[in-house]
Amino acid sequence: MWRWASQVLSEEELVRVTSVEPFYRVVEDSRTHMTFSLVGLSLTLEDGGEFTLVNIPYDVAEAIKILNDGSVPPRRQSIYTFLASHEEFKELIGRTLKRVIIDEVDLTTGLYTATVEFEGSGINLSVKMIPSQAIYLAMITGKPIYVTRRLVEMERKMNEEGGEEGGEGEEGETSF
């Protein structure tokens, strides 16, 4: 879905993302003792904080890792690794993509939404996207990524109240 850009968030309402790192964790349910895989993105913020997105598609995480590492994509590529190596596509999208803002969360489902802002030829357009995919577009075009201060504060408050589940160096956590 797209819409004409109407509500413009000021820089004071946003926290800039300085780096994006994918992660993979094996998590055990304490009640059932079943394990499951958790794929996510750790966003480092300009204020030194961290914002985490989980349950992202594995192929997006893999493509971000390849971008970060400067690795050669596998012979059998995903659409993401293909787009990263397609200079004309990156140039075309980069001409109008202004920025990506993670700006909504559905508290019932825990799903975040990102707004991708485009500007060009006097037209401003906002598109709601899945955050990991929007982040990927920003990364391959060199455009800024932001999280609203409201969401950053909400995540910090939830982590303080409930305690962070798992911690750094938890067993089962591996990098890609």
The first-to-last residue Cα distance is: 32 Å
Structural class: alpha+beta
Number of helices: 5
The poorly predicted ranges are 1-6, 164-176
Largest sheet: 9 strands, mixed
What does this structure look like?
The protein is of the alpha+beta class. The chain has a single domain (2-163), classed as Bifunctional nuclease domain. It has five helices and nine strands. Strands 1, 2, 3, 4, 5, 6, 7, 8 and 9 form a nine-stranded mixed β-sheet that branches. α1 (58-69) runs parallel beside α4 (131-141) and α3 crosses α4 (131-141). The longest helix has 14 residues, at 149-162. The two termini are 32 Å apart. Residues 1-6 and 164-176 have low confidence and may be disordered.
Output the keywords.
nine-stranded mixed β-sheet; 176 residues; 5 helices; alpha+beta; Bifunctional nuclease domain; 9 strands; 38% strand; globular
Task: State the gist of this model.
30% of the residues lie in helices and 38% in strands. The protein is an alpha+beta fold and 176 residues long. Strand 6 (111-120) and strand 7 form a beta hairpin.
How would you summarize the topology of this molecule?
Elements: E1 2-4, E2 14-28, E3 35-45, E4 50-54, H1 58-69, H2 79-84, H3 87-96, E5 97-106, E6 111-120, E7 123-129, H4 131-141, E8 145-148, H5 149-162, E9 173-174
Parallel strand pairs: 5-8
Antiparallel strand pairs: 1-7, 2-3, 2-8, 2-9, 3-4, 5-6, 6-7
